[in-house]
Structures are given as structure tokens and as C-alpha cells.
Amino acid sequence: MTGPTPTVPAVEVRDLWVRLGGAPILAGVDLTVAPGEWVTVIGPNGAGKSTLLRVVGGLLPSSGPVRLRGTSTGPVRVPGTPTGPVRLYGTPIDRLRRRERARVVATVAQSPVVPPGMAVLDYVLLGRTPFIPALGRESAADLAVVHDVLDRLDLARFAGRELATLSGGERQRVFLARALAQGATLLLLDEPTSALDIGHQQEVLELVDQLRADAGLTVLATMHDLSVAGEYADRLVLLAGGKVVAAGKPREVLTEDLLATHYRARVRVVDGEHGPIVVPVRR
Ligand SMILES: Nc1ncnc2c1ncn2[C@@H]1O[C@H](COP(=O)(O)OP(=O)(O)OP(=O)(O)O)[C@@H](O)[C@H]1O
Q1: Angle between the 168-182 and 198-215 helix axes, to the nearest 10 degrees?
Q2: If you write DSSP's letter for every residue of 221-275 in order, what string do you get?
Q3: Which of 19, 20, 107 for mutating ligand 1's site (highest number of atoms within 8 Å of CB)?
Q4: Is the domain defined by 11-69+77-280 classed in CATH 3.40.50.300?
Q5: Cβ-count burial 213-226 (b if 16+ within 10 Å, e if not)
Q6: Ligand 1 centroid to residue 189 C-alpha, Å
Q7: What is the CB < 6 Å shell around ligand 1?
Q8: Segments making up each domain of the chain, as ranges
Q9: What ipTM score was computed for the predicted complex, to two decimals?
Q10: Which atom of ligand 1 is nearest to the CA of 191?
Q11: How many CB atoms lie within 10 A of CB 248?
Q12: What's the gap in Å between 55 CA and the centre of ligand 1?
């Protein structure tokens, strides 16, 4: 008898360890994101959220646990997972070539490098690079995708402007536009709305959610606004000190106790229409 075919996760992270500058940043992180799911990683400053997204996006090498094995000449470090602990749609990320990876996963980093003198249109066009043959030029279809994304993000009027002259919020929308133009099925958003006013914040998150419904996009994000995080995500993962300390539906993770313990914050959590609303309360 055959049962339903198990779905291959869009993201599967098993026992991820990261050390940077000699210090452990992530210590045994597990994370699964199903295709079409929206998971948001929350946690206090320095918890390791951006690091986790950078590893999942292939921007930082990953490793399994490093164990010490005794030999006659002393202990040696051996990686615990030969293929690495991160799989995207079933393939270990270190087996994906750069172009292949770019077709699968697009990242909006917290502070991307802004190339000096580059116009908005050319910057967003960079998102089409995986589809442009080496030594080739962008096609009319590439340009059509870019113009469509600029329209959707209310950026068409900035197409010819130098990126560096835009406001912080306008620039943040351009960074998202570049990632959307890439057309990858998995979108990694590191604090995607931190510089946006409340209107543009809603507009951008609704657009991402709509793309999720229309195009089957999978979203892995980080956010500091806990109420907004809970409103849009199917599941939240709370990271603290490089470890997952809670994971589940927003109302399971956004509790006064967990937020007091891991953020050292005094908050009230009240029921909202689309999830819990977290209200800071003065001590
Ligand atoms: N290259 C590096 N060398 C040493 N330490 C690093 C390096 N990159 C990051 N770290 C440290 O790793 C920890 C986690 O950083 P990360 O940016 O992942 O945290 P975060 O949860 O995204 O924080 P925030 O909410 O402030 O953006 C921090 O303590 C940071 O100082």
C-alpha cells in the first residue's frame, strides 16, 4: 500500500554549527521550511538570525558539528556531516553551483552593498543575471520582468535614478525588487521592512504574501517587529544565543513568558485579528 508522497522541504537545516571570529554563533540549529510556507526567525540582537539566513542563502559556508577525535598525535577536528547540514529542495547547498543556486534562492540582505553610480533599473536587472548567458545581454523578457517588479513595488518613477540618491525606505524596496526579479522560488528576507513606513511595510509584505499564493513562493524571513512577524508567518522560530529555543505557530511562540526570558522584555500579548499583538509595557 502506498501512502501520500512525502514533500521534500524547501529548506532543511540539520544540526548547523557556525563559528565566526573564533566564537560559536550557531550551535546545533535545526530548521525546516515546507514549500509555500512562510517562516520567520525572531530573536534578540546578536542571536544569529542573519547568520542563519546567510548560510541558507549560500553566502556563508556551513558545517555540521565539529567533533574532536583522539589520535596518537592529539585531537583532530572532524566535520560531523560530510555533505553539510543545509539542503534546499533536497539538494545539499554545497552541491549547487552559483547559477543553479541563484535560480532556487534569492536573498534580501540587511545592508546590501550599493554599487557606486548604479541606476535603479540596472541594479534590479542584476537579479536576472542567472538567466543571461555568459557574454550575452539581457533579453526583452528580462526587461519585462524588471519593469513589472518595479511597478509592483511602486518604484517605476525611480528607474533612472542613481540608487545611492534614494531614501533608506526606497532603497530597501529596490533591494527586494532585485530579489523578486531573480524569480527564485525561495525568498530569504533579512529585516525586509526595517526602513519602511507603516504603509509601505504593509504593501511590501502583502505583495510577498500574494506572490506566495500566486507563484508558490516560500519565505524565510527575520523580523524585529514581533506583531508583524506573527501576522504574516505560518510559523515562528525563536533563536537565542545561537540556539532554537522555541518554534511553532505565532501564538505558541509569542508568549509573555518566552519574550521575558529571551528578550528580557516586559510585554503584554493580546489577541489580534491575524495573530497575537505584542505591546511593550514600561517597567
Ligand atoms: N564575521 C564575524 N566575526 C565575528 N563575529 C561575528 C561575525 N559576524 C557576526 N558575528 C557575531 O555573530 C553574532 C550573531 O550575529 P547576527 O548578525 O547573525 O545576529 P542577528 O540575530 O541577526 O542580530 P541583529 O538582530 O542585531 O541583526 C553577533 O554577536 C555578531 O557580532
Answers
A1: 10
A2: EE-S-HHHHHHH-SEEEEEETTEEEEEESHHHHS-HHHHHHHH---EEEEEETTE
A3: 20
A4: yes
A5: eeeebbbbbbbeeb
A6: 16
A7: 20-21, 23, 25, 43, 45-51
A8: 11-69+77-280
A9: 0.97
A10: 27
A11: 12
A12: 13
Q: How many residues does the chain have?
A: 283
Q: Which three cell numbers stand for residue 256?
A: 509573555
CA atoms within 13 A on the CB side of 133: 2
- The type of residue at 94 is D
- Ligand 1 atom index nearest CA of 222: 22
How far is it, in rounded angstroms, from Cα 190 to Cα 219? Answer: 11
pLDDT in tens, 47-90: 999 999 999 999 998 765 544 444 444 333 444 444 578 999 99
Do residues 238 and 252 lie in contact, with contact meaning Cβ atoms separated by under 8 Å?
A: no
The pLDDT mean for the chain works out to 89
